[in-house]
Amino acid sequence: MIGLISTYGQGGRVMLPRGVYAPQGDSLLLRDALDREEVGTGTAVLDVGTGSGFLALAAARRGARVTAVDRTRRAVLTTRLNAAVAGLRVEAVRGDLLAPTVGRRFHLILSNPPYVPAPDPALPLRGAARAWDAGHDGRLLIDRLCDTAAGSLHPGGALLLVHSALCGVPATLDRLKRGGLSAEVTDRRTVPFGPVLASRREWLLDHGLILPGDDKEELVIIRAERSR
Ligand SMILES: C[S@@+](CC[C@H](N)C(=O)[O-])C[C@H]1O[C@@H](n2cnc3c(N)ncnc32)[C@H](O)[C@@H]1O
């Protein structure tokens, strides 16, 4: 089933089949961070975990050469469809994080990966939760991305990553630095718990990830740059 969703002004409209992540607060925070970057016709952009292609399309609209990767076939097909409907060129490929583009380098990597701490210690193999669940600490994919991003960036290139502060901002900054990048938090936004966090409040409390009464989380943008 395909639904139509308005994606807040500049994003236009994207087709959204069931099971494909609907752009939301984290997508918008990352889109705002993308807007602050110098992006033009010569810019090679990689969107890792593209979902509907919302961010890939935003970069393509500014003239960038965009590659978009997602683990699910449905997201890849949706991104291709949304690019075609918008008259934009986006190369959308299926695969695991940076694996489909190994050997290539980009000026800008965008990622809104799954980052929600989950009762299941492993990544889900099927279902919509593949878009958000990421192990007990929410870091199963973030850590892999932090460890490997530098090798996919041109000198002077940057990674823009969004995640919840629940998964540990210092851990991301340390990991990126150990991976060879300089990294800092460039934006923050506090948002109410969505339905997924609200539904696992007890589990989050038991694991010391939230305090009694917490009903908001902080989203952060981390910008990590490779030296020139
Ligand atoms: C939070 S959604 C973000 C979607 C979109 N970028 C946005 O901001 O609206 C995370 C996306 O990552 C994809 N994903 C999950 N695991 C992945 C992996 N190992 N490699 C690539 N993509 C993955 C999911 O299928 C989902 O589309």
Protein model, in words:
This protein has 228 residues and is α/β, with parallel strands linked by helices. It has a single domain, classed as Vaccinia Virus protein VP39 (Rossmann fold). Helices cover 28% and strands 29% of the residues. The chain contains seven helices and nine strands. It has helices at 25-35, 54-61, 73-86, 140-148, 169-178, 195-199, 201-206, and strands at residues 2-6, 13-17, 44-48, 65-70, 90-94, 106-111, 153-164, 182-192, 216-225. α2 links the parallel β3 (44-48) and β4 (65-70). It is globular and about 50 Å long. Bound molecules: S-adenosylmethionine (SAM). S-adenosylmethionine binds next to α2 and β4.
